[in-house]
Amino acid sequence: MISVSNLRKTISGRVILDGISTTFDQGKVNMVIGSSGTGKSVLLKCLTGLSNIDGGTITYDETKLDKKCNFDKIRKTIGVLFQSGALFEYLTVEENVRFYLDTLLDMDKSSKELRVRECLEQVGMSEYLNRYPRQLSGGMKKRVALARAISHNPKYLFCDEPESGLDPQNSYNVVNLISCITTKYNITTIVISHNIDSMINIGERIIYLKDSKIVWEGTNKDILNVNNSQVLQFLNTSVMYKELHCRSLTQDL
User: Fold this and answer.
1) Which of 40, 117, 132, 181 lies at 20 to 30 Å from 20 by C-alpha?
2) Contact criterion met (CB below 8 Å) for 235 and 243
3) How many angstroms separate the most distant Cα atoms in the chain?
4) Distance of CA 19 to the CA centre of its chain
5) 2, 156 in Cβ contact below 8 A?
6) Contact by Cβ (8 Å): 141, 175
């Protein structure tokens, strides 16, 4: 579990996060949604130590961090799936997935090889062990990046817009892989997204950001009957939301 209290972040005089307080549950996909420019990715950077915070605290289970603390004590427990995938083009699939094992953990060669194969099997990419990123499609790259993110058995998994750049089928496959891995390993997973369909499919807990603040929290079931006008304006761009919302209302009659 991760909890944040009164988290504040300012960039170039502009308030990006204004007193954010919430909890991200273990064993669930926690989604942070909102339009572009609302602070979603900045929140992820603050939570992972990629950006310093200006105030408030972040607590990883029993470890409390503030702006005076560094993230070294929890670095090995964090996995990150970056929006671009961020694979190293000069490394093979196997070498990319092994990267965290080489840099973070003290493991022998055979143990690393076994773990890499296990992770690639998890995402359906074990047969591409010796390929280079340039030889992979966008969806395949995201799956390899996900395998790398979970290679060191993290307690916390962060995914920054994992559907970005993918067609609908690959988007569905990747987000469902994230959901399955979260449940299987009881990870605290945080997904940053503006994809409403993904949120409805896997968002066991949802936080909606607008104007630097949290304006709504709930589950993917709660959001089908939400009456917050700001959230509704965001949701009404989704055909899936409209269909499921109508179906939910019909069932209630």
Assistant:
1) 181
2) no
3) 61
4) 21
5) yes
6) no
Nearest to 68 by CA among 79, 80, 77, 55: 55
Q: State the alpha helices, DSSP H only, in the chain.
A: 40-47, 93-104, 109-122, 138-149, 168-185, 196-202, 229-235, 239-252
Q: Locate 16 and state its tokens.
A: 């990006």
Task: In whole angstroms, give the CA distance from residue 10 to residue 24.
Answer: 22
Model confidence, pTM: 0.86
Give buried/exposed letters for 158-190 (b at 16+ CB in 10 A, else e): bbbbbbbebeeebbbbbbebbbebbeeeebbbb
Q: How far is the C-alpha of 61 from the C-alpha of 80, rounded, in Å?
A: 18
Identify the residue whose tokens are 């060669």: 109
Report d(CA 91, CA 97) in Å as an integer.
Answer: 9
Compute how many other C-beta atoms are within 10 angstroms of the C-beta atom of residue 27. 14
Candidates 35, 55, 49, 14; CA nearest to 192 is 35
Return per-residue pLDDT of the chain as tens, 253 residues: 999 999 999 999 899 999 999 999 999 999 998 877 788 889 998 998 888 889 998 999 888 877 666 677 788 889 999 877 789 999 999 999 999 888 877 788 889 889 999 999 988 888 999 999 999 988 889 889 999 999 988 999 999 888 877 787 888 888 888 999 999 999 999 999 877 777 777 888 999 998 889 999 988 888 877 888 887 877 776 545 545 545 554 555 4
Q: What separation in angstroms does the CA of 26 have from each of 16, 45, 197?
A: 26, 19, 22
Give backbone dihedrals phi and psi of 154, rounded to 5 degrees, phi first. -70, 150
